[in-house]
Specification:
It is built from five helices and no strands. It is mostly helical and 189 residues long. Helix 2 packs antiparallel against helix 3 (88-159). The longest helix is centred in the middle third of the chain and has 72 residues, at 88-159. The radius of gyration is 37 Å and the shape is rod-shaped. The relative contact order is 0.09.
C-alpha cells in the first residue's frame, strides 16, 4: 500500500513539474497614441501622392478647358468671317445672340468640369482614407506581434522555465517596471 502511495506521489510531482515547465500565454493591455503609428515620412509620402493625383487631375481638366476654349475661339472666328460677307447690322445682332449662347455654353462646360473635379476629388479622398486605414491596421498588427515577441522573450529570459508565474506576479510586475526603458527600446527597434 505504501508503494502505491509513493508511486502516486512521484507521478503527481512529475506531472506538476511538466505543468510548471510549460509556459502559459499572458495577455497584456497596451495603450498607444494612434498619431504615433504613421511617421512624418509616411505622412509626407501620403501627402505627396495625394498632391500628385490632384495635380494630374488638374492638368487633365486644364487640357479639357483649353480644348473647349479653342473650340469656342474657332467658333467665334468662323462667325466673324460670316459677318464680313453679309450685312454688318444683321450679323451684329446674330453675333450678340451667338456670343450669349457661347457664354452659356462656357458656363455649362465650367459647371460640368467643376462637378467632375469635385467627384474625382471625393473619390480620391475616399481611396486615400481607405489606404491610410489599411496601412494603420497593418502597422498595428506588426506592432502587436513585435510587442508579444519582445515581452515573451524578456519574460522567458529573465525568469526562466522553472518559475510559477502566478506566485511570482509581484516580482514580474516590478521587474517589468524596472526594465521599462529596455522594453521600449526593444519594441521600437
Amino acid at each position: 500500500m505504501a508503494i502505491i502511495s509513493l508511486v502516486s506521489l512521484l507521478w503527481s510531482v512529475s506531472l506538476n513539474n511538466k505543468l510548471i515547465k510549460r509556459p502559459s500565454p499572458k495577455i497584456y493591455e497596451i495603450k498607444m497614441d494612434s498619431s504615433k503609428i504613421l511617421t512624418d515620412t509616411d505622412m509626407k509620402d501620403v501627402r505627396d501622392k495625394a498632391q500628385k493625383q490632384l495635380s494630374d487631375i488638374t492638368e487633365q481638366a486644364t487640357s479639357r478647358l483649353q480644348q473647349s476654349l479653342n473650340n469656342t475661339v474657332d467658333g467665334i472666328s468662323a462667325r466673324l468671317n460670316d459677318m464680313t460677307e453679309t450685312s454688318l447690322s444683321q450679323e451684329f445682332e446674330k453675333y450678340q445672340v451667338s456670343l450669349e449662347a457661347l457664354r452659356e455654353q462656357s458656363i455649362e462646360e465650367f459647371s460640368k468640369l467643376q462637378k467632375e473635379l469635385d467627384t474625382r476629388r471625393n473619390l480620391y479622398s475616399e481611396q486615400l482614407d481607405k489606404k491610410v486605414v489599411a496601412e494603420f491596421k497593418k502597422r498595428m498588427e506588426l506592432f502587436d506581434g513585435r510587442l508579444n515577441d519582445v515581452v515573451s522573450t524578456y519574460l522567458v529570459e529573465s525568469l526562466g522555465n522553472q518559475v510559477d508565474f502566478g506566485a511570482q506576479a509581484n516580482y514580474i510586475i516590478s521587474s517589468l517596471e524596472a526594465n521599462k526603458d529596455v522594453l521600449k527600446k526593444d519594441i521600437l527597434e
